[in-house]
Specification:
The chain is an alpha/beta fold. Helices cover 23% and strands 26% of the residues. It has one domain: Rossmann fold. The protein has four helices and eight strands. Helix 1 crosses helix 2. The N terminus is likely disordered.
């Protein structure tokens, strides 16, 4: 079932210029399957036009999250890997998935000639790994997820929603009872 694109009539919300609605949520992921499931849930909720900024060290779960996101977007591709050497990988599904990896970017100015705006402002869902290397180039309305090690398989997922559609996702995650909430701030 196709749902209206973010901001269209019937979508989760119509983002107004300067919409500064914010919320935070701290989740516990006790295994990689929890991270995958969160990505899948978000993929199913997506309507198009969303930007997800993923931050964390190597091996913290960013790509695993994107694999779940791809599943939720009904991407047929079996192997979703981090596009470290090519910077961007595009996948077709219910909505396009644009998987961007900024690991090799040293300065934000290096991003300007890449033309990433086309994907950040497109009709698909954009997941940006190593987003901390280019936060100023990302739209202010976005969901930022910071992955932190909390053990061999355990992670803390710090979710920061900026904009009404993303804060609605956090509300739904909180109410779903599917993930252990460590802390929440509105």
């Amino acid at each position: 079932m196709l749902r209206p694109r973010l901001g269209e009539e019937g979508s989760m919300a119509s983002p107004a210029a300067g919409d500064q609605t914010e919320a935070r949520l701290l989740l516990w992921s006790d295994r990689t399957e929890s991270t995958l499931a969160l990505g899948e849930w978000i993929g199913k909720e997506a309507v198009g036009g969303e930007v997800l900024a993923l931050i964390g060290p190597l091996g913290a779960g960013k790509t695993r999250f994107v694999q779940g996101l791809a599943k939720g977007l009904e991407v047929a591709e079996r192997y979703i890997t981090s596009p470290t050497f090519i910077l961007l990988q595009s996948y077709e599904g219910r909505l396009p998935l644009y998987h961007i990896d900024l690991y090799r970017i040293e300065k934000e100015t290096e991003m300007e000639p890449l033309g990433l705006e086309e994907f950040l402002e497109g009709n698909g869902v954009t997941a940006v790994e190593w987003a901390d290397k280019g936060l100023n180039t990302l739209p202010p309305a976005r969901l930022t997820i910071t992955f932190r090690y909390a053990g061999e398989e355990q992670r803390e997922l710090h979710l920061r929603a900026a904009g009404a559609p993303y804060t609605e996702w956090l509300r739904k995650i909180r109410e779903s009872g599917r993930w252990k909430i460590l802390d929440e701030k509105n």
